[in-house]
Design goal:
CATH architecture: 3-Layer(aba) Sandwich
Strand content: 5-15%
Strand order of the largest sheet: 2-1-3-4-5
Number of domains: 1
CATH class: Alpha Beta
Shape: globular
Distance between the termini: 34 Å
Low-confidence stretches: 3-19
Number of strands: 5
Largest sheet: 5 strands, parallel
CATH superfamily: SGNH hydrolase
Helix content: 25-40%
Length: 208
């Protein structure tokens, strides 16, 4: 399943009450899957992540810079300013689905993800790359090549990887019941699973 091309943009998440704005920033740069497209505010996986961080008293402040419809090229162009503004300790890159929807070259997707990862590392941030997969109707070779992009970049840059954000949602037996009518964006009830997919790779990057 892929992230859609809507124009909705989630607002940045504020720090929990009583939390100092001086806390290190965990920056999420993503598309509609991270921007709460079609969801009530506060029900997406990034909002759930913010609550998890607060519950576990982890010293980080979540900043959601996700925009629905964004591509890796868009993220690449936005990232330098975000790094300068937020000086994040951790950067989560959740982009690529819209590249496939638009039929953009896989080589460009790989180059953009690599450039973003490198820029974040050079700014002193730890990076988590969140992968996406496309349905079989895209063709076997394209499906394999697209999935491989994320692991290739993660291996080359030696960063953490979530192979498939929608694992257990898009590929599960109840997939049809877990998506909005567009069959692209998960319902709010599926977003805890998205966080479950991300959390094991992300938590070790958050320094206590």
């Amino acid at each position: 399943m892929l992230a859609g091309l809507g124009t909705h943009c989630s607002l940045s998440l504020a720090a929990p009450p009583g939390t100092s704005q001086a806390l290190p920033v965990l920056l999420v740069v993503g598309d509609s899957l991270s921007a709460e497209y079609g969801l009530a505010k506060g029900s997406g996986w990034v909002a759930l992540l913010e609550r998890r961080v607060a519950e576990e008293h982890l010293p980080v402040r979540v900043q959601n810079a996700s925009i629905s419809g964004d591509t890796t090229a868009g993220g690449r162009s936005r990232l330098p300013a975000l790094l300068t503004q937020h000086k994040p300790a951790v950067v989560v890159i959740e982009l690529g689905g819209n590249d496939a929807l638009r039929g953009l070259p896989i080589t460009a997707t790989r180059d953009n993800l690599n450039t973003m990862t490198t820029a974040a590392q050079q700014a002193g941030a730890k990076v988590l790359l969140v992968g996406m997969q496309v349905p079989p109707n895209y063709g076997r070779q394209y499906t394999q090549d697209f999935s491989q992009v994320f692991s290739d970049v993660a291996q080359a840059r030696k960063v953490a990887l979530v192979p498939f954000l929608l694992k257990g949602v898009a590929d599960g037996p109840d997939a049809a019941t877990l998506f909005q009518p567009d069959r692209i964006h998960p319902l709010a009830q599926a977003h805890p699973r998205l966080l479950t997919n991300v959390w094991p790779a992300l938590k070790p990057l958050i320094a206590r």
